[in-house]
């Protein structure tokens, strides 16, 4: 007797159509790839170049593949041919957690045009699409692109040939591991756009993220608070109002107020759950697409990243916390600040020279709880807080603990509960 899971595993893939040729246009490749991802245990991709918007389209499928309980495997190989590949797209790939193998073929002028998307399944089945689509929004969407589908059970020889060539290319002496160091070097030598006359590369950029009305009010309140000399601030906002986006927007605003480029400000984001760190990294990637980003958790540590997303459980341990100088970060966000009275949070807040004192934390947390915001609040060290988020920021010349609010303690400078869009939100910092 076959159980339901076996039946699901052996059920045929429901493609948009059964014809082997995917034409693009009104028959986009993305729809066919999307139908192949759900049960795949491994996905291998080889493309000549990748663009940021193309990576964004497949990023959710990559994440689902790599996450528990599936714990699949991603192997992706691209190239630097004509400098078309966008560093922002490469950094999005590096942001992925899980078993992923990311490689780059260094062309050195050699033509490089592979395009293949390969899916492996636990039952031994396999599907490959080989044709003309690079990893770009146009190639996956409405562009006229031809890609031929090969199913292992129907054409084992053809599927095997694709696998063999992928492995051969992956083992080529010109193929190297993708890393932040490689991306930085590539950015330095890259000469894009004007070299693309000989190949068809659509101009693709992600639409800029724009603050909502409530977020703009909060940003104005934070800016006004900083203008009075405050170096720590609390914004209290209900869950669902875009608190993480707010912290990213304010980090950029803080950099500009300090006459620095956003990429020159080191940011620390602290939370107690790994999924929050991953979500925050995705948000900050949209706002700071060129920054190096990393995590500091029990399983992954990138202490030198421009934007570091740290687990409170790991960072609060003395060997880890004391590995960072007191002035290592210019801007700190503490998620779910109503937890900040706990010892682990206090240690972090007191370690960094521009953060807040324990007494201030106790009073702020009590005030948040009394307001009924509770979970979802954030404190941004001189930036933002969502129903409890604290933000702290440090100017070029300030590293002291002179971080009190105007009343001599940390108090909310912005409050917003969930409300209709038409409703105004309070923005003034209370004395």
The radius of gyration over CA amounts to: 24 Å
**Shape descriptor:** elongated
Helix/strand class: alpha/beta
Count of distinct strands: 16
- Estimated helix fraction: 25-40%
Largest sheet: 8 strands, mixed
Task: List the secondary-structure elements in sequence, H or E.
Answer: HEHEHEHEEEHEHEHHEHEHEEHHEHHEEE
User: What is the mean pLDDT?
Assistant: 80
Roughly what fraction of the amino acids lie in strands? 15-25%
| Low confidence ranges | 194-198, 355-359, 372-390, 395-409, 418-431
How far apart are the termini?
Answer: 72 Å
The side-by-side strand order for the widest beta sheet comes to 1-7-6-5-2-3-4-8
What is the count of helical runs? 14
Describe it for me?
The protein is α/β, with parallel strands linked by helices. Helices cover 33% and strands 20% of the residues. It is built from 14 helices and 16 strands. An 8-stranded mixed sheet has the order 1-7-6-5-2-3-4-8, with helices on both faces. Helix 3 (52-66) runs parallel beside helix 4, helix 8 (213-227) crosses helix 9 and helix 9 crosses helix 10 (274-287). The radius of gyration is 24 Å and the shape is elongated. The model is unreliable at 194-198, 355-359, 372-390, 395-409 and 418-431 (pLDDT under 50).
Describe the structure in brief:
The chain is 33% helix and 20% strand.
